[in-house]
Amino acid sequence: MRRLLVAGILLTAGILLLWAHINDYELRFVPNRLGFRPPTYPSRSPDEITEHFELAGGSERDNRGFPQRKIDDLSSRFPKLFYREGPRNVRLVALTFDDGPDSVYTPQILDVLKQHNVKATFFLIGKRAELFPGVVKRMVREGHVVGNHTWSHPNIMKMDNKAMVQEIMKAEEVLSKLAGYRPALFRSPYGSIDEARVKEIEKLNYKIVAWNVDSLDWKSLTAEQVRANILENVREGSIILQHSAGSKEENLAGSVAALEDVIVTLKKEGYRFVTVPELLKLPYKK
To answer: Do 189 and 59 meet the contact criterion of CB atoms below 8 Å apart?
Structure first.
């Protein structure tokens, strides 16, 4: 009886594999552990062990909680200034990556994007860009767009306008030297922002970019979880949020591992990947 059961299981598995092959499905087994890292996971550089690499406002986990409703309200209130998605009548999506660069996750993400000829938008932290100038230059050289994510990643809701402007402009100076242009796109750390700060940032000649699909990769999720968070919520015009670096306790290996599956799946479904300025028809530099 036991042999018959085993034989039945093997036969069923064989039929499923044959069906998947015929229908061009790719079966992938992803470890479902928060500590999972790809076998090629490199060690962190000394620059990432210093305080200079830390996020001024703390980790995403400690600061998240800004309601999606407020993002919706701001995009409705400032339709030509604050964006969370693109047009819904075209099968385009934009990948965006926050908090980079670093020497661990960002190069792996760039490798995947290059392999699949996909251009993305990276919202960079000024002091991290200063630590890893070569990574920023690679982004630009490979056709990606660079946006401003402040100098040190503070929670701007806890700052006065003068301090906030200094954070943005200090990052702009560094990014302009490395990217070769002054970014025209801004994303607020943790997504936290209000109407008064939107108006203040407008004076700096920036467009503000939020998102409508959150991978939640900052929770150190597995590849399976990140993939599901993206694919179950994506639609025409989506701006997808992932991270290309994080605080020291964040493990983004799952996000990196999910990226190829996300790209391949959405391409099969007829989506085309574009940068944020292409999606929104906005300039990427001042």
So the answer is: no
- 3-class secondary structure, 58: coil
Which residues carry out catalysis?
98, 243
CA distance 122 to 148: 8
What's the burial of 87, exposed, middle or buried (CB within 10 Å: 0-12/13-18/19+)? exposed
pLDDT at residue 45, rounded to an integer = 84
| Residue 39 pLDDT greater than 90, yes or no | no
- The pTM (predicted TM-score) of the whole model is 0.85
Q: What are the structure tokens assigned to 131, written together?
A: 């630590």
Dihedral sign, Cα of residue 260, residue 261, residue 262, residue 265: positive
Distance CA 121, CA 277 (A): 9
CB atoms within 10 A of CB 216: 18
Q: Indicate the number of domains in the chain.
A: 1
Query: Domain range holding 251?
Result: 46-280
Domain containing residue 53: CATH number:
3.20.20.370
Is there a contact between 189 and 156 (Cβ–Cβ < 8 Å)?
yes
Instruction: At 30, give phi and psi (nearest 5°).
Output: -115, 120
Bond before 31 cis per omega within 30 degrees: no
